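Below is a filled-in request sheet from our internal design queue. Each sheet records the structural input a requester submitted and the sequence that came back. We keep these sheets so that new team members can see what a complete request looks like end to end.

REQUESTER: design group, bay 2
PRIORITY: normal
MODE: inverse folding
CHAIN LENGTH: 308
BACKBONE (tokenized):
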């Protein structure tokens, strides 16, 4: 049986985790927990909207556990496939495979095992549709985004981001065993949100991506082009968020979506204007705002569904 830990790393290649706690921490890091937290922010409000109130606590817990396992699987497999990039980039150089604290083969087994467990668990505790959507999300993120898009096109984040939209479909399917137009609109919100969320981060770490040979848009295009693309996708995101109002929500969500959208658009246009005028901009301000935007927007989804 292969050990969960590699043989001692060569000098300068990182350190092995010591003891069961450090080992568990290394494997947990492979799943990128902070990304999972962001994905799950959208799941519970979607389930509340789908149920028209509070769904059963068991169903919520089962969906969150299954969704976390699925996201952890996709992220671990992404770490396995991108280990060469992660070693080069300073932003990712402390990930377990980059530091040689987990064997690549073991990371692969771990990622596949999480995926099998996720699909089986969701199938047993929710329904087949939710399980199959989770499987589709894993396969899309690993095979389409990581293997095909990421290293070949600056549109990698745009189309690869579809995997990050799947939790809303999974949550909706877990409650209704179907996918409605409201779920599709929520999918669109996150789809258009992904570029304005990620491209500011890529602007900040442009040199990192360039060194690793990853053609993120800020690497292959001017800052002004990137800023204009951010503005365009921001408008599409806000339009999609407002569309949910007549489709599935009431005035609490509708008014909140308009106000939030206005705040985000002002920030996106400010970034574009700063770049156009040759000023020193801080793209991470928009990155952090994007997280707050998505969180508050989905809180409004839940509140609106509970009130109406």
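RETURNED SEQUENCE:
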């Amino acid at each position: 049986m292969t050990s969960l830990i590699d043989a001692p790393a060569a000098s300068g290649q990182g350190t092995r985790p010591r003891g069961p706690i450090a080992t568990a921490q290394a494997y947990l890091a492979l799943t990128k927990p902070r990304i999972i937290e962001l994905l799950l922010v959208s799941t519970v409000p979607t389930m509340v909207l789908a149920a028209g109130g509070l769904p059963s606590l068991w169903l919520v817990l089962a969906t969150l556990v299954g969704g976390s396992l699925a996201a952890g699987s996709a992220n671990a497999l992404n770490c396995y496939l991108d280990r060469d990039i992660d070693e080069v980039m300073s932003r990712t150089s402390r990930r377990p495979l980059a530091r040689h604290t987990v064997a690549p083969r073991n990371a692969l087994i771990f990622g596949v095992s999480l995926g099998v467990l996720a699909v089986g668990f969701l199938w047993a505790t929710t329904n087949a549709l939710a399980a199959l959507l989770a499987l589709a999300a894993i396969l899309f993120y690993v095979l389409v985004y990581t293997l095909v898009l990421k290293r070949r096109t600056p549109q990698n984040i745009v189309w690869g981001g579809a995997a990050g939209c799947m939790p809303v479909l999974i949550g909706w399917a877990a409650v209704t065993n179907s996918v409605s137009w409201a779920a599709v609109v929520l999918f669109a919100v996150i789809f258009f949100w992904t570029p304005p969320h990620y491209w500011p981060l890529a602007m900040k770490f442009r040199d990192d991506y360039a060194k690793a040979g990853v053609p993120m848009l800020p690497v292959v295009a001017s800052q002004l082009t990137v800023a204009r693309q951010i503005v365009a996708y921001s408008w599409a995101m806000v339009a999609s968020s407002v569309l949910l109002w007549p489709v599935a929500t009431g005035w609490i969500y509708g008014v909140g979506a308009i106000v939030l959208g206005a705040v985000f658009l002002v920030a996106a246009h400010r970034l574009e204007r700063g770049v156009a005028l040759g000023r020193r901009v801080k793209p991470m301000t928009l990155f952090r705002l994007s997280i707050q935007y998505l969180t508050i927007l989905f809180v409004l989804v839940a509140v609106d569904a509970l009130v109406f």
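SHEET NOTES:
- The two ends are 56 Å apart (CA to CA).
- Residues 223-248 form the longest helix (26 residues).
FILED BY: M.R.
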